[in-house]
Each structure stands twice: as structure tokens, then as C-alpha cells.
Design a protein that fits this description.
The complex is a heterotrimer of chains A (285), B (287) and C (268). Chain A is of the alpha/beta class and 285 residues long. Chain A contains eleven helices and ten strands. Chain A has helices at residues 46-53, 78-84, 101-111, 116-129, 146-158, 176-193, 204-208, 228-231, 235-240, 247-257, 269-281, and strands at residues 2-12, 20-31, 35-39, 61-66, 69-70, 85-88, 164-168, 196-201, 213-218, 221-226. In chain A, strand 1 (2-12) and strand 2 form a beta hairpin. The longest helix of chain A has 18 residues, at 176-193. In chain B, strands 6-7-8-3-9-10 form a six-stranded mixed sheet, sandwiched between helices. Chain B starts with a strand and ends with a helix. The mean pLDDT of chain B is 92. Chain C folds into two domains: 1-131 and 239-268, no CATH class; 151-234, no CATH class. Chain C has helices at residues 16-19, 22-38, 45-59, 63-70, 74-87, 104-130, 133-143, 154-184, 194-200, 202-225, 244-265; strands at 93-97, 100-103. Chain C has a two-stranded antiparallel ribbon with strand order 1-2. In chain C, a hairpin with a 2-residue loop joins strand 1 (93-97) and strand 2 (100-103). Chain C is flat, with a radius of gyration of 22 Å. Classes of the chains: A alpha/beta (285), B alpha/beta (287), C mainly alpha (268). Chains in contact: A-B, A-C, B-C.
């Protein structure tokens, strides 16, 4: 499995005075079993980019290739392809419409042409991965809490069994409890299914400790693509792009500047704690 | 006299089934009491369903308590003859920036409150200009709100309240739907209004990073106030906050973790500067 | 598909049409619509075109903007033209096949209807393009105040209109988002017969209605919190006063009406 973009460029309202390039010359390769954080501030082009990845937008120039085939090429079945690359939009709870939770989650699989029984089986599997209790299957999606609604919406895409799951700001507007539950379900989905997951966010703190690859997008260009620890050490560059590194990176930088012998970077509180304890235990200060 | 005086309020709402029969009564607020002095910056923390939004609506007479009393500048909010005066005194900013805007041009939006209050035309124009200047949005006076960012829309919403010249602004999760920059801008405006114009601020939020500069914090859970105190006092109770499933700033968490492992750090460290200084002192002590 | 709707949108510019009193523009629009229905021949489109082109030039609204508003009504244009083409009775038959007869009268009516609808949309969209919803509703409220003693809730109607206009762009954007989200779940809005297509709209319409109701609830609360209490005791930030240009505009409007009526009377 491979999803590749070649010189992808998208221009809004081309030929008018509003014309604006949302993304320009984006080259990316996404493979199996990756956990990717796509980071950029509002208006950086990240939402435009992900809508290209499942063919909702057609590039002004450049191509998107799914296993080597152009997704806008002749005879390419885009509807089937959208089952392979699942996209969960921001505030996905606003797309719920069915009379009960289970039926809503069945919507995607049924669109793929699956039978009622198959769709229901997939829906149940997806709901359990999303951490939705069986008792809620027959409840109206509109009666659930904000966090639950969102997990149902994620299950709705998950039930299509995509090879790549893209989530646009999955924690936006949730309280810490709702956010943790969403991130926990995403981790569970990752560990259970080994699907490639792309987490789109403007918050470094959310993605830092989960992902194994970070892509930073700014003004429609890919600025960084690599290992999280390495990327988050570029604090100044990230700030110039209107982003910030995870809070822990800042603490370690400040300690370093104050003369503490900090080496490398940490992403979680636990890593930083052990790093600092190490310094004190070894008697370096 | 306190600007806000909440005395033992409870609030029950009733769930109804399809036939409209009452099925159960839910207690959203349970014996809440608190007092706020003029000029204070108060944060009310809690996650969804803790009762914090229900509480906020009581300060603006959008809801009146089932039991107990809310006084705003001495006015009882359950007395309907006070309602308009209460709303002029305690203005309210809501979570969704789009859903609280009435007008299609920024200045008309800001003028909506004063128009409702019957303020004379010349005075409205002046108030609108002043309010837009205060939130740093004067340049967008003639723009359409649809073209603004979330943070800019929320600043317009704040200006709309400011033009009503309130003594107090109750902001119900004003940053929940914003990106980091919009969030920072809105908070800056609220702090500036508090310091420079002595407006009392009640900030309802579930984001911990936003409350460390407040004068006092109230933590709500299950309709009750479960903790209250200065930020330092509140953040000294990391275990308790984690039990309530609330966040703690990363630096506070790190300091707490180090202390658990035996480093003698002080409780309730809130900023990076404090943290670095504490570690420095500790290092010197060892030499 | 939704972002092309310009009806109800405001185009900010500094022009004499923008500055006109909304009451003048409302009356002008009513007269303009009336003129489209007074005219029975192609000749009436001469003064109508002069009037429309003059207003467009004065308004500084780009023609492309107005043309964009016409795009969504193309299906309506085609349907009404087709009906007129087929159903207009007449003797000068051009072709006849199966049960369908096309005659010159039908061709004439079809072109006439297309022109009338095009002019109707172009002209009425100018009203909202050059008038902010608040000014528009202020104009309606004040212009229709003579109805208040008849228990017509003029203020409430005006307020509802203004809010509806304010939320049109928000809801169209939302509809676009929901459509994309359902497409990502494999929904198909484009194929199948009419019944299938109508049913395919349910996943779009249900969330849209739910969202509209939620927004309405939020807005009602926000308005209440800002002391909204109906028309009573309300002042205006931008009260309406007639200026010299408004009286000139009234003169132009009545002059225009007179020309169209005279043309009709003389059968032109």
C-alpha cells in the first residue's frame, strides 16, 4: 500500500483577484503502519492537503497516486478509493443523521455495497474500537455527550475499514476528559489494526507523544518531515511559522540555557523527569 | 458590596419523555455559594457536565435558581423587574463565535446591545468606536464578520458586550473553538480589560493554561464547587486535579513528578521561570 | 455548489447606490419588478436594460459577481423555458414530432421568460448586494411602519429577515462541509433516479436542520443576554434620514415607471 503525491498544487478561485495557492508542490509518500502527525496553523493548507488525499478536491496541477495509479485517471473508481482512505473531518459529530447510533455507523459500509449483516458486523467492531458501549447502539446519536458523538462519527469512517485513517483536529473543542478518550481510542485503533493514521492538529502537545513521524506544513509547503524529537528541537523555526513546540521542549531548552547539562530532547513528562533525575543523581550539578 | 454574591443556589432541570411527561429531575447545581469583588479575575474550571455553564447563565439572569439567591450588584436575579439591569451589569460572551452574532457588519454587531438598551444614537457611535479600539478590531469596523477568524469574531463579541458598559463580563468557554493564536488574543483582551478598565471577569473554561493568571479559581464537579483558591493553591493538588480528569500545566506536572521521586521542590509551580529557579536553588544547595 | 448563491450577500463598496436610503432602494426594486411584468414586448427591455445597466455601473458591483448569482437558477430557467416552448398555443408551427408541437409563439415566450427571469434575479440581487441586511431591515421596518396599527409585527418580521440573511452564508458553508463529510463516507449525490437522489439528500439535510436549530437556540440566548426585548425602547445606531440624492432617486424611479407604463399603453 502506498499513497503518494507528486508536485501537488491547489489554487483557490484561479484567474480571479481572490486567487490564492493553498498548497504548492507538495511531495509526500505515505506507507503502511505509520502514525503521522500533520501540523500547521490555521490557513497553512493542511485541510486542503488532506482533502486531496481522498479525492474530495482535485489538484490544479500535480497528481495523487494510489498504489501507483492516478486517482483522477481514466477508469479509477474514486468511490471505492474513498473506502481505502478514510477522512474524519473537524467536528465530525455534525455529520450524524440516523435515528440510532448503529444505523449511522452502518451508513459508510452500506455505501461500499456491503450487505446489511456485513455492515452491522463492521459497525459493531468499529464502535467497540471507538470505545462506545453496546448499551448506546440503539440510542439516538443526538442524545450522546460531545465526546461520545465524536467517537461515533469516527467509528462511522472506521467501519469502512480504510487502510489510511485521517483525522482532522479530532480533539478540537473537547474538554480534557473527552480529549483523552478520543486519543486513547485512536491509540487503540493503531495498536489493534496497524492502520496508518494521520492526525492533523495545530497542537504539538497532542501529537508529540503518540506519533512516529511529524510533517510540518506552512504556507502550503512541507517544511519538515521526520522524527518528532528531531523536529521539535527546531523551536525557533516552528515559532516563526506560528507554531510552538510541546511544552516539555521549552522547559528543557530553558534548563539548558540556565546551564543544566541537558542532552537531546524529551517529549513526555516522564522522559523529562528521568532526564532531570539522571542529572541530579549523577551529581552533574 | 460584592459585585456577585451567590448564596446556596441549586438548579434542577427536568427531563421529559416523548409524551412530555416528566421522567426525572436532574440537579445541575447543588448548593453553590461564592462571592466576587469588583475588579477580580475569576476562573471557573470543570469539564463538560460539571455545571459550570449552567452556573454562568445564572449570573446573567438567563437562568434563575431553583433554590437560593444570586445577587448581581445587590439585585436579586429572580426578580424579573431586575432582569434588564442585571444583563447590563453582567454581560455574557458565549462559546460559538458565529452563533452569537446578529448583524452582518462588525460595527452594527457591536451596536446591537446599546440599541436594545435605548442608548441615544451619538452615544452608540462613540461606544462602538471605543469598544472596537479596546479589543484592537477598529480596522475591521466595516467588515463582514463571516470573513474574520474565530479569534477575531470572539473579540468582536467581547466588544459587543463592552459597548453595553458592563461592570462584569462572564465568558463561557470563549476559547474552546479557537486555534492557539485566537485563544491567546482573546485571553490578552480579557486580562487587559480587567487591568486597565477594572472590568470584573468570570472566565469559564476547561483549559488549565488559561487560568494560571487568574486571581482566584473555582473548580466545579457534579454541580458543586469542589476546590477554590489561588492558582498556586489549586495546582498544589495535582493528584486531586487528575482524579477530576482535569489537566495540569506540563511544568506543574513535571515538578510534581520530580517531587514524587524525591527532589525537594515546592508545591504548585506554575511557570517555567519558577521551575528553572527552583532547580537552580536545589543545584546550588548541593554544591 | 452552494457557494455560488449570491442572493442575500452584501458586496461592500463606496457607491451612490450603496449610500441611498434603503426605503428608496426597496421601492425601486418593487417598481423594477413591476416593470418586468408590465412589459409585454421586447421593446420594453430597452428602458429596463438602460435602468439596470445604469444602476449596476453606479453600484460599482462587478458584473461577474452578478452573473455568478445567475448560475444556480439555470435549471429553473431551462424548465420554465421548456414549458413555455411546448405549451404556448399558436399557429405558426415550426416542427411537430410525437405529441409535441413547437411554434414561433412558443419560441417567443420562452425567450421572453428567460429574459424576464434573468433581469429579475440580476435586479433583485442588486438590492441585497448594495444594502447591508441591517439597513435593509431598518428600511422595511420604517417603510412599512404604517402597517403596525393593523397588528402586523413589522419589527419582528424585519428582525427575522435580517437574521436569516446573516445566516445564509454560514449555513451554505456548513452544507458544503457536511456534503464533503458524507462523500468521504461513500455517499453518492449524483447518480441514480430522482427518488434515489432525493433519498441521498437525507444525510445532508438532517444534520443541516439539526445544526440550524442549535444555532437558533444559541442565538436566541445571546440576543436575550444582550437585553434584546423587541422593538420597545429600542434606539438606532444608524437611523434613516433622507438626503438630496434620495429625492433625485425617487424622481428617477417614478420617471422610469412612467416610461414603461406609457410604452405598454401604446402597445410597444
Amino acid at each position: 500500500m502506498e499513497l503518494r503525491t507528486e508536485k501537488l498544487t491547489y489554487e483557490y478561485d484561479p484567474g480571479t483577484s481572490y486567487a490564492k495557492k493553498a498548497i504548492e508542490d507538495v511531495d509526500l509518500v505515505i506507507r503502511e503502519n505509520e502514525f503521522i502527525g500533520l501540523i500547521g496553523h490555521t490557513g497553512s493548507g493542511k485541510s486542503t492537503l488532506i482533502q486531496h488525499l481522498n479525492g474530495l478536491l482535485k489538484a490544479t496541477s500535480g497528481r495523487v497516486l494510489w498504489n501507483g495509479k492516478d486517482i483522477f485517471g481514466d477508469g479509477f473508481d474514486r468511490k471505492e478509493f474513498r473506502g481505502h482512505v478514510g477522512l474524519v473531518f473537524q467536528y465530525p459529530e455534525y455529520q450524524l443523521f440516523e435515528t440510532d447510533v448503529l444505523k449511522d455507523v452502518c451508513f459508510g459500509p452500506k455505501n461500499l455495497g456491503l450487505s446489511e449483516a456485513e455492515a452491522t458486523a463492521r459497525a459493531k467492531e468499529a464502535l467497540s474500537l471507538a470505545g462506545i458501549d453496546e448499551k448506546l447502539y440503539k440510542a439516538s446519536p443526538f442524545e450522546l455527550s460531545g465526546g461520545q458523538k465524536r467517537r461515533v462519527a469516527i467509528a462511522g469512517v472506521l467501519a469502512m475499514k480504510p487502510d489510511i485513517l485521517i483525522l482532522d483536529e479530532p480533539t478540537a473543542g473537547l474538554d480534557p476528559k473527552g480529549r483523552d478518550e478520543i486519543l486513547d481510542s485512536i491509540s487503540l485503533i493503531r495498536s489493534e489494526t496497524k492502520k496508518t493514521v494521520i492526525l492533523v492538529s495545530h497542537s504539538m502537545d497532542d501529537v508529540a507523544q503518540y506519533v512516529n513521524r511529524v510533517i510540518v506544513i506552512n504556507k502550503g509547503h512541507i517544511e519538515f518531515d521526520g522524527e518528532p524529537r528531531e523536529i521539535f528541537s527546531h523551536i525557533e523555526e516552528l515559532e516563526e511559522m506560528g507554531l510552538s513546540a510541546p511544552a516539555i521542549s521549552y522547559i528543557l531548552r530553558d534548563l539548558k540555557e540556565a546551564g543544566f547539562p541537558i542532552e537531546g530532547n524529551a517529549l513526555t513528562v516522564e522522559e523529562a523527569r528521568d532526564m532531570i533525575l539522571g542529572i541530579f543523581r549523577r551529581g552533574h550539578v | 458590596m460584592s459585585i456577585i454574591d451567590v448564596k446556596n443556589i441549586t438548579y434542577d432541570y427536568h427531563k421529559k419523555d416523548d409524551q412530555g411527561n416528566e421522567t426525572e429531575s436532574v440537579r445541575a447545581l447543588d448548593d453553590v455559594s461564592l462571592e466576587v469583588k469588583e475588579g477580580e479575575f475569576i476562573a471557573v474550571l470543570g469539564h463538560n457536565g460539571s455545571g459550570k455553564s449552567t452556573f454562568a447563565k445564572h449570573l446573567n439572569a438567563l437562568l434563575v435558581p431553583t433554590g437560593g439567591t444570586v445577587y448581581i450588584c445587590g439585585m436579586d436575579t429572580s426578580d424579573t423587574s431586575n432582569t434588564l439591569e442585571v444583563r447590563k451589569t453582567a454581560g455574557m460572551v458565549f462559546q460559538n463565535p458565529d452563533n452569537q452574532m446578529v448583524a452582518s457588519v462588525v460595527d452594527e454587531e457591536v451596536g446591537f446591545g446599546p440599541e436594545n438598551m435605548g442608548v441615544p444614537t451619538d452615544e452608540i457611535l462613540k461606544r462602538v468606536d471605543d469598544a472596537l479600539n479596546s479589543v484592537g478590531m477598529y480596522a475591521y469596523k466595516d467588515s463582514s464578520p463571516t470573513r474574520l477568524s474565530g479569534g477575531q469574531k470572539q473579540r468582536i463579541a467581547i466588544a459587543g458586550i463592552l459597548a453595553m458598559k458592563p461592570k462584569c463580563i462572564v465568558a463561557d468557554e470563549p476559547t474552546a473553538m479557537l486555534d492557539p493564536k485566537g485563544r491567546a488574543d482573546v485571553l490578552k483582551v480579557l486580562h487587559m480589560l480587567n487591568k486597565e478598565q477594572n472590568v470584573t471577569i468570570i472566565l469559564i473554561t476547561h483549559n488549565m493554561e488559561e487560568v494560571i493568571d487568574a486571581d482566584r479559581i473555582f473548580v466545579m464537579e457534579g454541580g458543586k464547587v469542589v476546590m477554590n483558591g489561588s492558582p498556586r493553591e489549586i495546582f498544589s493538588h495535582v493528584k486531586e486535579l487528575q482524579r477530576l480528569r482535569l489537566d495540569v500545566p506540563e511544568v506543574t506536572k513535571l515538578a510534581f513528578e520530580l517531587k514524587q521521586k524525591g527532589l525537594p521542590l515546592r508545591d504548585g509551580i506554575l511557570t517555567r521561570e519558577e521551575f528553572v529557579n527552583e532547580l537552580r536553588l536545589l543545584a546550588k544547595g548541593r554544591v | 455548489m452552494f457557494k455560488d448563491i449570491t442572493l442575500g450577500q452584501f458586496y461592500p463598496a463606496d457607491s451612490v447606490i450603496h449610500r441611498l436610503d434603503p426605503r428608496v432602494k426597496l421601492l425601486g426594486t418593487v417598481v423594477y419588478i413591476a416593470s418586468l411584468f408590465i412589459g409585454k414586448t421586447f421593446f420594453t427591455f430597452i428602458p429596463i436594460s438602460v435602468f439596470l445597466v445604469m444602476v449596476i455601473i453606479l453600484s460599482k458591483v462587478p458584473v461577474s459577481f452578478i452573473l455568478r448569482g445567475i448560475k444556480p437558477i439555470i435549471p429553473l430557467l431551462i424548465i420554465s423555458a421548456a414549458f413555455n416552448l411546448i405549451l404556448t398555443p399558436g399557429d405558426s408551427v415550426i416542427v411537430r414530432f410525437w405529441i409535441i408541437t413547437i411554434n414561433w409563439e412558443g419560441v417567443f415566450m420562452a425567450i421572453f421568460i428567460i429574459l424576464r427571469l434573468l433581469y429579475l434575479v440580476a435586479g433583485t440581487s442588486l438590492l441585497t448586494l448594495t444594502t447591508t441586511p441591517t439597513r435593509l431591515t431598518d428600511g422595511m421596518e420604517k417603510g412599512l411602519r404604517f402597517l403596525t396599527p393593523l397588528k402586523v409585527p413589522v419589527h419582528e418580521i424585519a428582525m427575522m429577515m435580517s437574521i436569516a440573511l446573516r445566516f445564509i452564508p454560514i449555513l451554505t458553508e456548513e452544507a458544503d462541509k457536511i456534503k464533503k463529510a458524507q462523500l468521504a463516507r461513500g455517499a453518492d449525490f449524483e447518480s441514480g433516479n430522482l427518488m434515489k437522489r432525493v433519498r441521498a439528500m437525507i444525510p445532508l439535510l438532517v444534520p443541516l436542520f439539526v445544526s440550524a436549530f442549535r444555532r437558533a437556540g444559541d442565538l436566541a440566548m445571546a440576543m436575550e443576554a444582550r437585553c434584546y426585548n423587541g422593538a420597545e425602547g429600542r434606539t438606532k445606531m444608524k437611523p434613516l434620514f433622507y438626503a438630496g440624492r434620495d429625492f433625485i432617486a425617487y424622481g428617477v424611479i417614478f420617471g422610469y415607471l412612467a416610461v414603461v407604463i406609457v410604452m405598454r399603453v401604446f402597445g410597444l
